[in-house]
What we know:
By secondary structure, the chain is of the alpha+beta class.
Amino acid sequence: MSDSWQECMDFAVIIARKAGSVICSALKEEVSIMLKSSPADLVTETDQKVEEMIISSIKEKFPSHSFIGEESVAAGKESILTDNPTWIIDPIDGTTNFVHRFPFVAVSIGFAVNKKIEFGVVYSCVEDKMYTAKKGKGAFCNGQKLHVSDQKDITKSMIITELGSNRNPEVIKIVLSNMGKLLCIPIHGIRAVGTAAVNMCLVATGGADAYYEMGIHCWDMAAASVIVTEAGGVVLDATGGPFDLMSCRIIAASSKEIGERISKELQIIPVERDDGKKMK
């Protein structure tokens, strides 16, 4: 990674910490809630305020760069990844947690060049845990080097997933059926923390052996995907094929063996791609 991208990463850490401070202050106040795609898909004024702060700060320093931000896309901007240096931002990953003051809320900032993620910063602000990784340089939490569990036996694994915000009864049936199939292998257990970025970071720490989900977005996955791989893990498509940032689905695992074994159990939930292209 070039020195210029190091400067970008250093700035991402500073701005993530600043955003986390705004979020932690807002947790002490009354939260103004709005709905997006469903009654369980929430957004707050703080999401919008934090994203605006992050993007305006980065634009000032790196005016030629591009941006994909969750709230910008929700407001109508396209989610197109080009070869240009691109910041992929989730201002509050875990908005429902934020609304309920459930203490797992993260700022997620990924940075891509030529459509490849160069670095990722995830700041779990209530816990004050700063996860960072850059391509080829390892993954860290508060400066401590991370490594996945290296577990290869799925019967000895702890897996993280989420129920998601889609309340379509048919989708919920598939979500619960997928969990049931994994529990019956059997695995040690399933957990849900409520934020995709933190879920993936927990795989990077070795605290969980895998995470999978369908129906999330590039801003949920971009930063943490490089944190997982730099900690020695793998990221795959939910089908078991190569990971595609714009596909809205992921398996992040401590080993290829566990990732591929999970994919064999999953019924795929049809979701639209972030870039609008037809799903393969």
